[in-house]
TrEMBL record:
This is Alanine racemase. It holds the Pfam family Ala_racemase_C. It comes from Arsukibacterium indicum. Pathway: Cell wall biogenesis; peptidoglycan biosynthesis; Amino-acid biosynthesis; D-alanine biosynthesis; D-alanine from L-alanine: step 1/1. Residues 234-358 form the Alanine racemase C-terminal domain.
């Protein structure tokens, strides 16, 4: 029995979810987004499980180099691009493709003297207002990139939605229309769609879709769960019941004594806390799956432990397995109780958690 909380990662489920993406966007190539340690699932293992993807995307160069060190040979795109000219030879040597989203990068490419050519994705800001050149700058950037000796012919064009997770948002159709107008006279490959747009905005699929969250089996929509899109959850986060005690009506549990028993009850202690990445802001009432039934979190989340209400006649014994999220308990539900999104829950898992990879 593991003494640590376990994040069990089902690599077969990742493969299934990739197939689901390919069904949803049959005419598009898949640029699988693996930033932030593959959404907390383990960068290299997830990349290896995605052998059918066409290319990978990460945020930063160190993530890309970790993949290369592990022997991953597929094309890799840096979504934030390079930060300084000195990185360009490293990109070239490691076959890394770069997003270009600002003038500094354009000038660095114009002045670069490289022994080869880099594949470039030009990012246009169509309304997210985070990264990307403005629509007014587009034609000039495009022309100058084509003239750069350091840039490979064939400049991919991309943008990013701000509201794709709100089905029917006007902003999404505005961004799509603007992007299509800008690209209409260019024969270049295009990419717009993140997970939410892959599901809900098929018009945006283009040449390359960019799924992140749905590869991990999770719905990008707050009112839905992965199974409703025929996705399979990939992570199963579990720990163990390590203590049980009976308390009387009116007694309180945990720091701040902010939960009080309405009747005599049994309290169970489970060995996981915010020091492992379980969200400290999960409120009393958050479900926990305990050896075959749902119980509720009571009191505050501690660093190493949480407490749950086992009721008046608990059937569990010490050592029972508790699942915090996974196939038995949708992470989308937990995110709501913790007033956050599944993305953040996944990224917050700490190195104290033991990762185990399975393939069934
Ligand atoms: C993170 C990211 C994605 C993937 O987003 P999901 O919602 O996880 O599918 C796609 N494109 C860009 C530019 C991103 O930063």
């Amino acid at each position: 029995m593991s003494r640590r909380p376990v994040a069990q990662i089902n690599l077969a489920a990742i493969g299934h979810n990739l197939q689901r993406v390919q069904q949803l966007a049959p005419a598009s190539k898949v640029l699988a987004v693996l930033k932030a340690n593959a959404y907390g699932h383990g960068l290299v293992r997830v990349a290896q499980a995605l052998s059918e993807a066409d290319a990978f995307a990460v945020a930063r160069i160190d993530e890309a180099l970790a993949l290369r060190t592990a022997g991953v040979v597929k094309p890799i795109v840096l979504l934030e691009g390079f930060y300084e000219a000195a990185e360009l030879p490293i990109l070239l040597a490691n076959n890394l493709q770069t997003v270009v989203h600002n003038e500094l990068q354009l000038v660095a490419l114009e002045q670069a003297e490289l022994d080869g050519q880099l594949k470039v994705w030009l990012k246009i800001d169509t309304g997210m207002h985070r990264l990307g050149i403005s629509p007014e700058q587009f034609n000039e950037f495009y022309r100058r990139l084509w003239q750069c000796p350091a840039v490979q012919p064939g400049i991919r064009l991309m943008s990013h939605f701000s509201c794709a997770d709100l089905p029917g948002a006007v902003k999404t159709s505005e961004q799509l229309t603007l992007f299509q107008q800008l690209c209409s006279d260019k024969a270049e490959q295009q990419s717009l769609a993140n997970s939410a747009a892959i599901i809900h905005v098929p018009e945006s699929h283009g040449d390359w879709v960019r799924p992140g969250l749905i590869l991990h089996g999770i719905s990008p929509f707050t009112h839905q769960q992965g199974w409703q899109h025929q996705l399979r959850p990939v992570m199963r986060l579990s720990s163990r019941l390590i203590a049980m005690r009976k308390i009387k009506q009116g007694e309180t549990v945990g720091y701040g004594a902010n939960w009080q028993a309405e009747q005599d009850t049994w309290i169970g202690v489970i060995a996981i806390g915010y020091g492992d990445g379980y969200p400290r802001h999960a409120v009393s009432g958050t479900p926990v799956w305990l050896a075959g039934r749902e119980v509720q979190l009571v009191g505050r989340v501690s660093m190493d432990m949480i407490t749950v209400d086992l009721g008046q006649q608990p059937v569990e014994t010490i050592g029972a397995e508790a699942v915090l999220w996974g196939p038995e308990l949708a992470i989308e539900r937990i995110a709501k109780y913790a007033d956050t999104i599944p993305y953040e829950l996944l990224c917050n898992i700490t190195p104290r958690v033991d990762y185990q990879y399975i393939t069934v």
